[in-house]
Amino acid sequence: MKKIALLVSAAMLLTTAAFADDGGKASLQWSLWGRSIWAPVVSNPNGYLTSALGTSWGQSTRNTLFVKGDAGNIGFDLTLGYDNGSLTQSWNDGPIDVWAKPFDGLKVAIGYIEDYTLRGEADYGDWDWIRTFGTGDDSVFQGIGTVRGGAAAPISSELSYTYGPLYIYYQQPFFDNSSSTQNFSAWYDTNGTQGVFQNASYGLGYTIPGIGQVRVQNVGYLTSQSWMNYLSSAGNAANGTGRFGGYNFGVFQAAFRLTGVQNLYADIGLWIPDTIDNTAGSVNAASRAGYDWSVPVFATYTMGKLKLSVNAEFTSINQHWYQYSAAMTGASLTGVANQMGVLAGLGVDYSLGGGLNLTGDFKWANTFARDNTTGTLNETSAMIGIYKGLASGDIGIGFEWLNGGQFHGPVNGYSSAYTQGNGPSATNATGTAANNFAIPVRIDYWF
Predict the structure, then answer these.
(1) Could you give phi then psi for residue 182, rounded to 5 degrees?
(2) For residue range 183-233, what is the model confidence (pLDDT) as tens digits?
(3) Which of 36, 41, 277, 318 sits 20 to 30 Å CA-CA off 9?
(4) Neighbours of 304 (CB within 10 A)
């Protein structure tokens, strides 16, 4: 492994030197990031104690290599991921694209694009440990090129323009024809003129000096392939049960990020499904989405060594709302119309000095919250952890408690399917969902 690392480093140094001959403007940069979590003790929904390996979002230990070429007006991004002992292209972690800037401010990019220029996150607490439920990346304002549900986005082309405080973009997705994601083609309909714009994403952001940033966008695709497969057979549109087959709807998003108050960061958004599918007929976007509107909020406030984080999400659901388990079968959902989905959380971070830091959070979601991973129970979670900063990373240990869900088993959600486990019935999720706990040991690194 050391020999491979030395060879890669040498090759990159040689390439960087060759680039530098071009007037000293071009460069080749590389960096690495990874996360691994070992849980020596995890409770099982059937009452057993077991163990697990993985990372925050599932069972794969993550190591990612980022390579960037930049000659000022042309360049590329290459992201390679080493997960579960396999080296692959990794557009889940970063872009794989080529780009050019023919004029100042104008950029054309083609590939697996991830544009986080306007992204709004709610990253705190167990989002960086074993994720239980709740929001994190993309929670207030979605990054472009990613999809809700954790899967890779389709290959895309993007045109963007930056002029002072103004940023504008237009991204157009295309089929992903790789063997593992053939069903991505089910997202798109190329009939008629709407095929040009139907799943496109476009928007703008404007930074007000000393105050904050206003962002508006339409996101043309929001789900992963696995969610698409569920929805294609879930429910019956004719009698109003379950969800409509297909998932072609867009979401209008608006958000304001406040940065002009010292030590305070606050972000509030508004999500409204919008119809972009010309095959849907009379089926509107809200029926396809299962909700009429959603308001996410995230804020952090720093006071010396103490940082407080809070997030909330309020969602107005309709009769076509679905959840991850029973509702996926198409059982009647008429009784859940006009309900309010609520998710809320509070996080605390405190610096102890000497590189040591405490972190913790408490979260609650009712059954209609968009990120509730059970669909049948209220969920409550709490965690506390301590970690030590190292030269280029950190290591920590924590304790997590979850009521209303489970860490193990085929939990039908993108955030807590922790299946790399040992012990009897380690992947059986038919037992109780009450009072599960885990003791995670986490290692992060970056180079």
Answers:
(1) -60, -35
(2) 333 344 444 445 566 667 899 999 999 999 999 998 876 544 334 434 444
(3) 36
(4) 8
Long-range pairs for 188-194: beta carbons < 8 A, 24 or more residues apart:
188/248, 189/248, 189/277, 189/278, 189/279, 191/278, 191/279, 192/278, 194/276, 194/278
The residue ranking higher by pLDDT, 19 or 209, is: 209
**Alpha carbons 380 and 132: distance in angstroms, whole number:** 9
**DSSP codes joined into one string, 65-95:** EEEEEE-SSEEEEEEEEEETTEEEE-TTTS-
CB-CB contact of 337 with 346 (8 Å): no
Helix (H, G, I), strand (E, B) or coil at 329: helix
Enter the pTM of the model: 0.81
Q: Could you tell me which of 119, 216, 106 has the C-alpha nearest to residue 161? A: 106
Strand partners, 78: 67
DSSP output for 13-39: HHHHHHHHTTTT--EEEEEEEEEEEEE
Residue with token string 């959902």 = 333
In three-state secondary structure terms, 185 is helix
**pLDDT tens digits, one per residue of 61-89:** 788 889 999 999 999 999 888 776 677 66
